[in-house]
Amino acid sequence: MDFFNGLIEKAIEGSEANIVGDGSKFEAQIVSDKFDGLTPVQRHKLVYAVLDDHIKSGAIHALTIKAFTKSEWAAKNPD
Fold first, then answer.
1. Terminal CA-to-CA distance of the chain, rounded, Å?
2. Is residue 51 part of a domain?
3. If you average pLDDT over every residue of the chain, what do you get?
4. From CA 24, how far away is CA 55, in angstroms rounded?
5. I want to staple 61 with a disulfide (CB 3.0 to 4.6 A). Which of 1, 24, 30, 31 is the partner?
6. Which backbone phi and psi does 55 adopt, to 5 degrees?
């Protein structure tokens, strides 16, 4: 999924993307401070906009998005 990771990381400033899946069903985990102050729906729209061509082509049929700011991610995953 490096191709899709790269698309998101290039389009969403300062993001780290991890997309996994098979066939046309994917799960995207994206961490970026660009999400700060955005509602979950706004975060998803930002990601969908990046992948729109691939969704329309059918390359991505189902997409689950988990979008976090860096502080949300750190709180969720204390290492």
1. 25
2. yes
3. 94
4. 9
5. 24
6. -70, -45
